[in-house]
Amino acid sequence: MKNDCVLGLFAIKCRYLKMFEYQCKSSPEVEFAEYLRKNIEETNIYEVNNLELECYFADDNRLLIV
Questions:
Q1: Among the listed residues 6, 14, 16, the one whose alpha carbon sits nearest the alpha carbon of residue 47
Q2: Staple partner for 5: which of 11, 33, 48, 63, CB 3.0–4.6 Å?
């Protein structure tokens, strides 16, 4: 997804992080990704297509590989 990110795996200047306010309209990951795309120049956003990271979800034991 274009507007999704793995929270905890990002690097950002503190001033941008302090300005972010979660609005509870969608998931925190989606809102944070949208915020970054609106407030940081596109040339300064670097995406990694495969992190080789396994996420286990406790509520239903799903496995997501990102």
A1: 6
A2: 33
The residue written with tokens 């001033």 in the block is 15
Residue with tokens 């609106």: 38
For 54, phi and psi rounded to 5 degrees? -105, 125
Rounded Cα–Cα distance for residues 62 and 36 (Å)? 28
pLDDT tens for each residue of 2-41: 777 777 677 788 988 899 999 999 888 889 989 988 988 8
CA distance 14 to 55: 26
| Spatial contact of 10 and 40, defined as CB atoms under 8 Å apart | no
Indicate the residue type of 42: E
Q: Residue with structure tokens 């990694």?
A: 48
